[in-house]
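Section 3.1: Structural characterization of target chains.
Under the original work plan, the team committed to producing a structural model for every single-chain target entering the pipeline before any wet-lab resources were allocated. The record below documents one such target. The sequence was received from the expression subgroup and is listed exactly as submitted; it comprises 121 residues.
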Amino acid sequence: MINPVKMIGNIKSVADLGETSLKNVALASLGAYSKGIEQVGMAQHLVTKRFNGLIEKGQEVETETMDRVKMTQAAILKRSESQFNNTLNKTCGLDRNRLSDFEEKVDRLQLAVEKLAKEVK
C-alpha cells in the first residue's frame, strides 16, 4: 500500500526542487539581463569613444584643408595679378607699379593745389 506520509514527503521534495529550479532560472535570467545591460553600456562607451576620435580626426583634416585652400588661393591671386600686370604692360604699355606711384603723386599734387588755393583766398 502507498504510504501517504512518504508520498507527501516526495511531493514536498519535488515541489522544493521545482521551486529551487524556478528560482535559479529567474536568477539566471536576471543575471543575463544585467550582463546584457553592461555590454550595451560598454559598447555605447566604445562607440562614443571612436566617434569622438573620428570627430577629432575630421577637425584636423578640416584645418589642413583650409590651410591648403588659403595657400592655393594666395598663389592663384599672386599668379593672376602677375599675369594681369604683364598683359596690361604688353597691351597698353602701362605698369601697375608705376600707376600706383603716379596715383600717389597725383594725390600729393592735389593736396598741394588745395593748400595753395586756401592760401590765396
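The chain has a mean pLDDT of 85.
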